[in-house]
Sequence to fold (462 residues):
Amino acid sequence: MNKLPVYCFILIFMIACQPKAKEKFDLLIINASVIDIAGGKILPGKLIGINKDTIQLVANMASADSYASDQIIDVKEKFVMPGLWDNHVHFRGGDSLINENKNLLPLFIAHGVTTVRDMGGDISPSVLQWRNKIREGQLEGPNIFTSGPKLDGADPFWAGSISIGKLEDIKPALDSLEDLKVDFVKIYASSLSPDLYYRIVEACEKRGLKVTGHIPLSADHFDAIEFGLDGIEHLFPLLSLASPIGDSLRQLNLGFGMFPQVLETYDEDFARAAITKLASKDFYVTPTLYVSQVIMQLADMDPTVDSLLPLIGPGIQLTYERRIKQAQNRSAEGKQLMLDMDIRERSLVLPMFQAGITILAGSDCGPSNAYVYPGAALHNELALLVETGLTPQEALSTSVISGPKFFGLDEYYGGIEVGKVAHLIMLTENPLENIENVRSIDLVLKGANIYDRSKLRTLKTQ
Fold:
């Protein structure tokens, strides 16, 4: 009798009865309450499997026996969300402050900020070097997307800017930025004519370069957008769009001198119409509300009770003096104008968001902006966005979803899903219930780097 089929059957049976090998990950996060920022909901009882810097698994804890890892983090009763993006920061102050700027990098991580968008300064070679080293895992800090040097007119306001005084200057300026491999272009526009500004934007568009920044106060926003402007930093340039005489005031080239008349003639219908028109384009606005709040309060602030100031280098602290003196010397009329402008600027945020304009959360932290600190300032910015009428979920989306969207990186960031980058923060409280809970950081994960509560305290004191 041929017993071979019997032996085969027994062998197949024995193999089938063998325990299935568990899928193994570099890191397993268990018992996670995942914060779905896009959906505005909590997904409890989740298991997250990570290899290197990428999420490879998101599953229910009921399937936990199927997975294994030599490194397991139990985050029971904690909330897990994507790392924060600060979409407007600065590294600057000259070569003598390079190390002090570099020392700011861990402060971002300590506050759950895993990515920043650097809006230009005068130490770009160092910032570009940090960007590359961080991406290669050789330096501790947030991922950096940088514009490199700002572009400005013949008489630039900020040191380190590339001067463009005539049409012929545009090509070499953009060539130099592309040689540096910058991530986008920032225009400051303190001394640019509208026409030269449009030509720069148009040239960026032709090269496929993202471009944002300031806009000459005498320029037409909608013309700039037609030429390819992707976004605008700060809200004050948009105020003239809400005035029936805004076009006339811009043509008079009054600069900041036009704002008293803009506010006197401010019209809600004009504001709504302008917002609707802006929303018809794929357009980004970074309000930077918090820095405005600080600037208005500088004359009365007492830095001796500031717990974060001792973490800032003495050289950077010296850069604060210009804004502090300006605040101390500001007239009563000037203070009132700033207050009135701020009220109007904040009133724009909610209708812009609701209309479909992409709002980016950005703090404007860095040297020269007194007492606006890396990491902590973004928490304050998110809180102010909620004060304007956004829900906590919507405010968080302006950081973790809108930031990646600007760079076309939605596929890799913005959620806790398979294929996304493993930049995560664990919170002890739910930020969807109260935006202040974004400060309750218990652990930060940035790829292979795990920062528990003890290490986070060290980052804030080193």
User: Anything to note?
Assistant: The longest strand covers residues 41-51. DSSP finds 18 helices and 20 strands in the chain. Residues 262 and 307 are 39 Å apart (CA to CA).
